[in-house]
Automatic annotation (TrEMBL):
GO terms for molecular function: monooxygenase activity. This is Nitronate monooxygenase. PANTHER family: 2-NITROPROPANE DIOXYGENASE, 2-NITROPROPANE DIOXYGENASE-LIKE PROTEIN. SUPFAM superfamilies: Inosine monophosphate dehydrogenase (IMPDH). Keywords: Flavoprotein, FMN, Monooxygenase, Oxidoreductase. The lineage of its organism: Bacteria, Pseudomonadati, Myxococcota, Myxococcia, Myxococcales. Residues 1-37 are annotated as: Disordered.
Length: 398
């Protein structure tokens, strides 16, 4: 967007009770490279929904908390532009989470959140009570859980600290369990959504199913949301906000490998698939990924993938917990860890989470703040004359 309505205002005024911003010349991005200047929402720009009123944001836009990719620079950029930036935590330990939260609070005084994966069947897991206690101590505004419901005591501790607790769910059954557990928001993860995905229902159909469970619950649409039209359509059909992942991987601030970002720009609907091919760090879990060479070669044979040997075959190297612990990691064949700027190796061998329905709407890599403002302002204009937003058919090719 160009001109006075493109969202490029000065820094937002401090909000009561927020930590002070860094002084001029200082930055704290948790050891990561500094982000470009933030694109800040103009105070007059807004698209109000139940979500924006509940959380105190300008736009009903939530950035997906993607592991490895959604680090403080991306969180800050989304929040500064008027959305809700979400930190992706898996598989980071509590010490790293604490450093990430410090970096976020140094970079923005606007609301943000943290996204956790919970797998109660996994002996080592990704999320512990220490992670929850870290969020409680930091008074994180929003915490989201994905895959499995967390223990009830975690939910109670977060809510007692004033944190809003949401659940990302792909089925009505899990959504109903989340409601019974006292969660305050649902992210309807449709089958189009990239990454770890348990859903089998198209996004907008799932939004309608979740809305039927409760007229008062916050419901966000996840899967295939990548431009103003897809966002407006979700809001028009009952969502209180949109949860955006794939589009934000193709942003300047996303901590993703440049060639991975380019694959999203070059790809189209139908270029992704659901597979259980990638482990061994978290085996047997379904993901929507780009159909690269390895995915095509093993299509239909995922159950015959050999277990790692004593000396497993490797496909490259990467760096875990960048800017904090900087742990070098040798990636085994079929690694589920996606490529970041620190990754060396052949991306045709790697997991590239993405939603094809979103890829079809991506033309270029842009600053995250520009993505937020352009998508939301376009959605606002479409909702003023909503012809064509009622159609129930949706592109669910992935």
């Amino acid at each position: 967007m160009n001109g006075a309505n493109d969202g490029r205002s000065g820094p937002p005024a401090p909000l009561p009770g927020d930590a002070a911003s860094p002084t001029d010349g200082e930055s704290d991005t948790g050891g990561l490279p500094g982000p470009p200047p933030a694109i800040c929402v103009l105070e007059g720009n807004a698209l109000k929904t139940r979500l924006t009123r509940a959380v105190g944001i300008h736009y009903p836009f939530v950035g997906a908390g993607m592991a490895f990719v959604s680090l403080p620079p991306l969180v800050i950029a989304v929040s500064e532009a008027g959305g809700l930036g979400m930190l992706g935590t898996a598989p980071e330990p509590p010490l790293v989470l604490e450093a990430r939260l410090k970096a976020i609070r140094a970079g923005t005084q606007r609301p943000y959140g943290v996204d956790f994966i919970v797998d109660r069947a996994e002996p080592h897991g990704f999320t512990s009570r220490d992670h929850i206690d870290t969020c409680v101590a930091a008074k994180v505004p929003v915490v989201v859980f994905h895959w499995s419901l967390p223990p009830l005591e975690w939910i109670h501790a977060l809510k007692a600290a004033g944190t809003r607790v949401w659940m990302q769910a792909g089925t009505v059954d899990v959504a109903r369990q989340a409601l019974d557990a006292g969660m305050e928001g649902l992210i309807a993860q449709g089958r189009q959504a990239g990454g770890r995905n348990l859903g089998s229902t198209p996004t907008l159909a799932l939004v309608r199913e979740f809305r039927a469970l409760s007229s008062d619950m916050l419901v966000l649409a996840a899967g295939g949301i990548a431009d103003g039209f897809s966002a407006a359509r979700a809001l028009h059909q009952g969502a209180d906000g949109v949860w955006v992942g794939t589009r934000l991987i193709a942003s300047v601030e996303a901590y993703a490998h440049p060639l991975y970002k380019q694959r999203l720009v070059d790809g189209d609907a139908g270029d992704t698939t659901l597979t259980t091919l990638f482990g061994p760090e978290w085996p047997g879990k379904r993901m929507r990924v780009i159909r690269n060479r390895t995915v095509r070669e093993w299509a239909g044979r995922e159950s015959r993938v050999p277990p790692p040997g004593a000396v497993p075959e490797t496909i490259g190297t990467t760096r875990l917990f960048p800017g904090v612990l900087d742990v070098q990691y040798v990636m085994p064949k079929f690694s589920s860890f996606l490529p970041t700027p620190d990754t060396q190796g052949d991306l045709e061998e790697m997991s590239l989470p993405a939603g094809g329905a979103s890829m079809s709407r991506i033309d270029t890599v842009q600053p995250a703040g520009q993505i937020v403002v352009e998508m939301m302002e376009r959605a606002r204009r479409l909702l003023e004359s909503p012809e064509g937003l009622d159609e129930e058919d949706e592109d669910d090719r992935g």
